Structures are given as C-alpha cells and as structure tokens.
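Changelog note: in this version the structure field was regenerated for every chain. One regenerated record is shown below for reference.
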Amino acid sequence: MALSSPDLLKALEPRAARWLKLSVALGLGGGLLIILQAWLLARIIDAVVFAAAGLREVQGWLWPLLGIFLLRAGIGWASEQTAFRAAAAVKLALRARVVRHIHALGPSWLAGQRSGALSEDLTRGIDNLQDYYARYLPAMSLTLLIPLAILLVVLPLDWLSALVMLCTAPLIPVFMILIGQGVEILSQRQWRQLARMAAHFLDVIQGLSTLKLFNASRREAAVIASISDAYRHSTMEVLRLAFLSSAVLEFFSTLGIAIVAVLIGFRLYQLDLPLPDLLAPPEVSFFAGFFVLLLAPEFYLPLRSLGTHYHGRLEAIAAAERLAVILNTPLPERRPSAAAPLPQDAGLAVRFQDIHFRYAAGREALAGVSFDIAPGERIALVGPSGAGKTTVASLLLGFVRPTEGSILVDGRNLNDLDLDHWRRLLAWVPQSPRLFAGSIRDNIRLGTPDADDDAVRAAATRAFATELIETLPHGYDTHVGERGAGLSGGQIQRIALARAFLRDARLVVLDEATASLDPSSEAAVQRAMDALAVGRSMLVIAHRLATVRNADRILVIDNGRVIEQGDHASLSARDGPYRRMVRLLEAAA
C-alpha cells in the first residue's frame, strides 16, 4: 500500500512521542499558571481599587505573582527545548531512513533522478518538518486542554461568558480549515517548483564551463530568472492566503473577547441586557468580571496559535510528498543465502546464463547474453556505445537484477547470495571514479577503513600512484575537493586503482578505466591494471586497443548480444566486427 505524505508524518510521530508528551505537559502547566496569574492580578486590583489596600496588604500576593512570572518563563524555555528535541528526533530518523532507502535502490534508480531535487528533499525538505512536530502537534493538544481548563474555571463564575466562549471558539478552526485547504494546494505546488529550481540550479553550476563555451550563459540566466519569478509568484500566493487566514483568526478571537467584555460591562454598570427572562444572566462582581476578562484572551490564544502553526502542517505535507514518493519506490528483492559464504582467498568462477534485461517495457538492453569468467581470467568486453556493456557490469555488481536468466558464482545463483558479502569480494574502478572531500589516505581506504598506513602506501605503490602523491603538498594527508578537485583525471584514476589494490578483491570490474586520459596517464594506469589482474578474475570494459590486447578473452557485444569472442590474435584474424573495430581504432590513432 502506497504511503501518502499525511501517513508518513503520522508514522513518524512515535519517534517524537516522549518529547511531545513532555512538551504538552509543560504547556498545560503553563496554562494552569496563567489561570493562577489572572486570579492573583484580579485579586490584587480588586483589593487596591475597592478595598483601598496598600502595598503591605497586597504584598503577600505580589511575591507569588513574581514567582509565577519566573516559573512561566522557565516552563516556556523548557517547552521550546522539548519541542525542538521532538522534531530533531524525527528529522534524524527520517533522514537516515530516506538515505538508507536510496542506498538500497542503488545507482540504477539514482541515474534517473535529479541530484539537486534529491539534495533539496534531504536538506530543506526534511527541515520543513520542524514546525509540524515542534509547533503544530503540541498546539493541537493544548488547544483542547487549556481552553477546557479555562472553561471549567469560568463556568461557575459566569456561565454567560462561558457560553460565549463555547459558541465562538469553533469558528476559529472551521475557518482555519476552509482557508487551509487552498493553502495546502498552493504549498504543494510551491514545493514542487522549489525542487525543480534547485535541480536546475545544480545543473547550471555543474555545467557552467559548457554554458560559457557555447555562449549560452546569458540565455540560461534568463531561464533562471523566469523560474525564480514563477517561484516568487507562488510564494506570494501562499503568503497572501496565510495572512488572510491570520486576519480571520484574529477577527473571531477579538470578536469573542469583545462580546465577553460588553456582557461583563453591562452587568457591572447594572444595565439591562436585551435577553429573555429565562436567559437572564447572573450578577457579577468586579473581581469575577475582571478575572473572566483576563482569561478571555488566554482562552482564544491556543486556538489562534493552532491556526498559525497549521501552516507548518501544510508545509510539512508538501515537503513529505516527495519523500513519500522516494520511500514508496519498491526495493529490489534480495534474499540472503543460508549457505556458507563464498571463499575470500580463491578465484571466482562467474557464469552469465542466457541473461535478458529490460530497463523498461520494449527497451531490451541485453538479449540472451551467455559467457563465463574463469578463476583468474581476464575478460575484455568491447562494443559500440549502447551495446549493453555497462548493463553487464551493473548486473555483476548487483545494482540491478536480470529480467530473465541467472548469474552463477561458483555454481550459486547471485540472487540468492548475501549482497553485502558478495560486494566485499569485488572491486570496481569506473570510468569517472568518485573521490570524496577528505584526505588522499581516506579516499584510498574507502572500502577498507581499518587498513593501516603501510597497507595504504603499498597499495599506492602497486597502482603507480606513490610518485604523484609524494609531490602533493601534504602527501597522503593532502585534502582533495569534491569529485577530486585539484587532481587530474589520470591522478584520480590511479588513486581509484590503489583503492582496488587495497581491497584485495577476488573479482575486479573496470569500466572504461583509461577513457579520457592522456598517453602518459593511460600508460601508467595500464601498467597498474596489468598488476591488478595478477591472481584475480577481471572484467574490463574498454574501447582502446591497449586495454584489451592483453586480455585472456575478448567478448564483442552489440545490440545486447555477444556476437564474437576469442583472444586478440584470433579475432583480428577473422573478418568480423572486432577486426573492423580494430582497423577503425588504428586509423584514428
């Protein structure tokens, strides 16, 4: 069953239940103190005005009044702190849950998403839940408890004022809901516009050099201005309705207070009210009337606060809509194996057995692919772009599952293996390796965080990366920026290979590892790849001859099918696709 945004918000409430209960209890305590404060104020003023009491006579009430002021301030601070902790607990839990779900969905799902929109969901989107848990939920409980407590106090003193409060109070939430329905629609539309704008901004920043080179930066600036203006208009529409809602809530609360004041004033002046004898109100003393009049604004205050914080609920629903979409995305099924784990110190035998894979209906990426990788064998996978090479790697890495057929590892179906255990036996060097913000040392031991410095240096040496690392300002402690900013493509590639050496995997997958490198960097990376292949099974996806010449076997794939296989010499001797590809590459060189 799909999870809606209100369902998601409700499902997260238990995370904050303990702090929310404490916040409501503190708020109720503050409300009871307000009643006591109003009683003391009415008693003091009544004594001073009508009993001519001096400072000495009322001093016994002034000190408790001062204590109430201080206690209310402390309770207000504590209530804010507990409400903040409630929201923080929910945000931490939800952010971890969404990130885990995205990790479980894997790179194949992530490739179809916009990074800017996801970043907005995980940062501002989750932060927009703050007011819902810290303000709206406590206000809902206090809206019931505090006015009820005030009504119970007012009713014995003046049932007419209590009746006015009881009749006017429901008008506030009714109009709040009526206006809030329009605000909810606008808030959801505004959030979607914000997500699109964030995604577009990230695309522009990442592609700024391309825009400058094609002289498209001015045109793109106009597009950004248009998107920003549309977002501004939607924001103003939300604010307009929000201010209208606040004005309506203030109007009805003010009207209720005014009616109570008029009714009390008429009776204090002993004027006849235009009411039937049956409804003739009781006489009221100055103390009782003033006490009730002091409580009237406090009676409507929780209702007005709920109306104000109701917009926090609408923002939370709009933000949770996208998060619910992510969490509703079904995860790929993985069943942990009950059998013994695969050996960590022996070569792996991998078999692709009549593999079919479709990204979508009618779009077949692989159509009956079958091949073997023997223990310690080096396989090169070549073919034109879009032939299915990267799909083969994604299947082997466990990012996606075959639509039909099976992948066997030492005779066991890959789908039945524990995915975490399987990936511990793998090393992956993609075409564009990802270096994270941090030191060179931390990036090398990404997959082996417990490795010591000697192991890190040995891995860098085997990847021919020692010389370049030692030329950096702080050696292995040199910090690199996002995506390896400050390093060349060849340097990043060699650090990625050092990462693979340190992992000491039984199966290595290299996806276009020498693409976009200069001849010198390519030669260094190629030497490192040759060293990495010793004693390991390896699948190499490549377009360059230097990468595939030394392969034990070459698989030529086209239109999702393996159309040729053999070593470089035998394939070059045939008049087939591989030979034609070699001729084209040699001519281009």
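Spot check on this record: The chain has two domains: 8-328, 350-588. The domain at 8-328 is CATH 1.20.1560.10 (ABC transporter transmembrane region fold).
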